[in-house]
Amino acid sequence: MTRLGCILATLLLAGTAQGAPSPRRIVSLNPCLDVILLAVADPGQIAALSHYSREPGGSTVTSLARRYPFTWGSAEEVVALRPDLLLVSGMGPPVLAGPASGLHITEAHFPVPASVEESLDQVRRVGILTGHPGRGAALIARIRTALAAAAPRAGEPRLTALLYEHHGIATGPGTLMDELMRRAGFDNVARRYGLIATGGVPLEAVIASPPQVLLAGDRTPGEPGWADRLLTHPALRGLAGRTRREPFPEVLTYCAGPVMIEDAQALARARESALAEGAH
Q1: What is the mean pLDDT of the chain?
Q2: Is the dihedral of CA 181, 183, 188, 191 positive or negative?
Q3: 36, 63, 68, 216: which is closest to 139 by C-alpha?
Q4: Which of 99, 157, 168, 201 could form a disulfide with 75 if both were Cys (CB 3.0 to 4.6 A apart)?
Q5: Which pTM does this prediction carry?
Q6: 23-112: which CATH number, 3.50.50.60, 3.40.50.2000, 3.40.50.1980, 3.30.360.10?
């Protein structure tokens, strides 16, 4: 390295060590960003979360989220909170335009992650933006450890499965949930039924070629989930001995980030249960 290069590298390292001031007031407009923010930021940095994270059955962090203020995503609410960092996702409300200009609000935009690595990159980015890159890195390490622990052991058979999300929509190929299933030893059969994205699956298709496992959870405790409705449907009663229904909480299908730890654990439990009951 040249002498000039050494000087520039030294200056860069010095600037990195000093770092920019950490944001003091952070507002998140997306429930999935809420989950990451709660995991890496100081409580005092969080000015508000999205209202979705407070809704029963709609979030994995409901009880924790209720300790913080929330917004309905309107520009007026955000401006009134005077944040210095705003976390926005493509699934959230419209991006602030005119009202935010001149208020020195840094807007960080995040797409919906389509893979595990994209989600981990978002965790890393939120950690950096909040001034806690070490916490982001530590969380990424915990997620990777959980994913590795959920992988099938050598010689353990893989199982075909269909995962139902809300309203009976099946997880499609090429999605983050599809990848999590694959990592946990399940082969998603959505393509078998003609799905090229997340969508509905005709009963006739399931009857003609059933998966070994139906994964689904109850949206409301005590009420039957979509997989239960399928297995008890008169036309599908014959699947009871061929297809196992394993619980997978619906709330775990909404977000990634830290939720992938729970995803991995739930998928591993489902696979182990199905194998123990003779699925092969």
Answers
A1: 85
A2: positive
A3: 36
A4: 99
A5: 0.85
A6: 3.40.50.1980
